[in-house]
Amino acid sequence: MSLWLPSSSSSSSPLFSNKSFNGGNNKSLTSYRFRASADVPDFLSVDWLESRRKRPFGPRLSFSAEESVQYQLDALMFNDQPRPDYGVEVMYRFAGFDPFERSLYFGPSFDLGQFERFRRIFHHSTYRVLLNHTERKILSSLNVEENLYKQRIWVRGARPEEEGTFQFTMVQRVGGFWDGYWLTESLLHDGDSFSGGVAY
After folding, report:
1. What is the CATH number of the domain that holds 127?
2. Does residue 123 form part of some domain?
3. Radius of gyration of the chain (CA)
C-alpha cells in the first residue's frame, strides 16, 4: 500500500499555496520562532531519598485490599505518633469519598469534606475505640466482587472494657487518578452508632 501526498508545488490545493502566511512580508518564518525550554536535570537531587521518606503515608498502587486495611489499623493503633491524630490523617487519605458531596462513609450521611469533621467523628464514643487500640482480630474477610472487599474486625480499646466490631468496605478504583488503588468506601460500627446524634 502506498501513500500519496500532493507535492508542495501543487497550485490546485489551497493547503499548499505559495501565498505567504505573514501578510506578504517575505521574512523567513523561522525568525518568528521562539525558544521555550526548561533545564531538566539528568540526576536526582541530594535530598531525594529524604523527601521520598517524608511523603505522607497513604494509598499505594502496590497495596492489596487486605494490606490497605492493615496499614490503616496500624496507623490508628499508634494514632498520636509522630503527631496527634496522625492515624486519623492516614484514614482520611485512604477515604474514597468526594469531599464536595455528602458521604455515607460512617453510615449516616455526613459532610466530611473538611478533615476536622472527619477527625471529630473518630473522637465520638463509638469510633474512639479505634484510637490507640491495644488488640484486634479479623473476624471475617470477603472478596464480594473483583473490585470490592469487606473485612470485619474486633478491636479492644485503650480504655478499660472498651471494645467494638467494625466493617471496612474497600473499593478498587477503575479509571482516573486513583486507577487500581484500594480506597475505603465505608467504615461501619456494628450497632446503632449515632442514635444520640453527633456534633461534628
Report:
1. 3.10.450.100
2. yes
3. 28
C-alpha closest to that of 127 among 86, 151, 163? 163
- Cell 508545488 locates to 9
Q: At what angle do helices 65-77 and 86-94 cross, to 10 degrees?
A: 160
Q: Which residues have C-beta within 8 Å of that of residue 33, sequence separation ≥ 6?
A: none
What are the grid coordinates assigned to 3, written together? 501513500
Smallest CA-to-CA distance from 85 within 64, 109, 115 is with: 115
pLDDT tens, position by position, 53-87: 666 789 999 999 999 999 999 999 999 999 999 99
Neighbours of 178 (CB within 10 A): 15
User: Residue 101: which H helix or E strand, with range?
Assistant: none
Rounded to an integer, what distance in angstroms lies between the CA atom of residue 97 and that of residue 108? Answer: 13
CA distance 117 to 127: 13
Residue that is written with C-alpha cell 469531599 in the block: 99
Hunting for cell 487486605 — which residue is that?
A: 66
Q: Which residues pair with 164 in a beta bridge?
A: 155
Q: What is the reported pTM?
A: 0.70
Give me the number of domains the chain comprises: 1
26 belongs to a structural domain: no
Residue 121 lies in a domain: yes
Residue 35 forms part of a structural domain = no
Dihedral sign for Cα atoms in the order 101, 107, 110, 112: negative
Which residue segment(s) compose the domain that 169 sits in?
61-189
